[in-house]
Specification:
Elements (H helix, E strand, L loop, with lengths): L1 E3 L8 E6 L3 H12 L5 E2 L6 E6 L8 E9 L2 E9 L8 H20 L3 E2 L1
Antiparallel strand pairs: 1-2, 2-6, 3-4, 4-5, 5-6, 5-7
């Protein structure tokens, strides 16, 4: 996990990832946030969503994706405390997910399958 911390319980940004267990991780989140009407990520980013949620366990703006990277069942989750007025949170989270997946592929030296 990587996060930006400040004086509040959760910092303004958090990112979590792993090279395995993606289907289970994202599947569990999808069940939990279903009442919050998540928006599906573009298919090229794997299986995942963006959502604004009022859950106390995470920051309110959240994106999650599971994707194949070679033989790996990878996953990435991105959490934001807020977005600037006038910004499109869904579009911004999709953009952050694109960047995160590109970095993941480079760091883990795997080829994305999508």
């Amino acid at each position: 996990m990587c996060g930006v911390k400040d004086g509040e319980r959760y910092g303004p940004l958090g990112v979590q990832w792993d090279i395995e267990g993606g289907q289970n991780e994202i599947g569990e989140w999808a069940k939990e946030i279903a009442p919050d009407h998540p928006v599906r990520l573009p298919v090229e980013l794997g299986s995942g969503f963006t959502v604004y949620t009022h859950r106390e366990t995470r920051l309110p703006y959240f994106a999650a994706s599971t994707f194949r990277c070679g033989s790996r069942d990878a996953w990435i989750e991105i959490f934001l405390r807020g977005v600037s007025p006038g910004r499109n949170a869904t579009k911004d989270l999709v953009g952050l997910m694109r960047i995160a997946q590109k970095r993941f592929v480079k760091v883990h030296r795997c080829r994305p399958d999508g």
